[in-house]
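Model it.
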Amino acid sequence: MSRPTSRKPKTEPPGQAPPDSPLTTKEGWRRCVEHEVVPPPLQEAASERERAQDDERRREYHADLPMVNTPTIQKVVSTTRLLIQLNRPQISARRGVILSGASGTGKTTALAQVGRAHELAMRKRHPHDAVRLPVVYVTVPPAATPKMLAMEFARFFGLTFTARATITDIVDAVCATAAHVHVDLILVDELHNLNLGSRAGAEASDQMKYLAERLPATFAYAGIDIESQGLFAGTRGRQIAGRFVVIPASPFSHATTADQEKWRALVGTLESMLRLRRHTTGTLAGMSEYLFHRTGGMIGSLSQLVRGAAVLAIEDGSERITEDLLALVPIDFAAEQSEQQTAPAKAAARRKRAA
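Modeled.
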């Protein structure tokens, strides 16, 4: 009987990614790496049509505001880049990074920024190597099994397999492809989906360790509250704890003057990116305390709030962000709960005005 083999993926025209290419495919990842948000100029439109086009460009820009370089992102990038250097001469037992924290603290964004920075650096170092694909980005599927996990890596490369393919076939093809394209950084998101309390989850964890031994790359993981998921318990957990640096991703604090200044600086950075005709610089930074209570210090919630308010400011013609306008932007449930706990009186007053 012949051995099942992987099938080569269909190729797309140069510079074009298929419409259904998420970040977990090489096409989607390349699009993320090459995507740059360019601020549109603020200029008076000569006609109604030009004004409509300008408004549309600015709405699209604010919906996709560039990510602020937070302390967590800086820490993850510097740590990962150092580990990549240290791991290159290692045959096994390579060190990695685990980014752990609550939902909305920017873990996925930080992971993507690490990969983007590394890939751009490799492109500069090897400008004529069109085959090189230094970064892989995958997510752990819910209730992951070893084969499901291996297929996530295969899917990133565009490898497909016959129904008879075994997990060994898949892993061999993945490792051969990774070696061919010089992968040296592997990003694994949603690590909390690994349930080490189940047999399948424990086996999937072993599969991940096996891939880390087979692939000469640095692994960077991200997940929700990894320390409380049992990942560091037992024999498997001790191995992981001995090889990975854990970087916490936590909400911003507002307890001390220094914390308040850091938060205000973050808000100010976001404000500097706005392209609104009548917004006065410093207005948003002046509302930093309100923004903190509204978002619970979550970078994801803050980004949604500011982006949403900017879009509304263009749509209603006000061209500036006010507290009343911010109150109209829907936010996630966790941020709402935080607001009720930290500033109930202000929240009630805003709800009255909004009504």
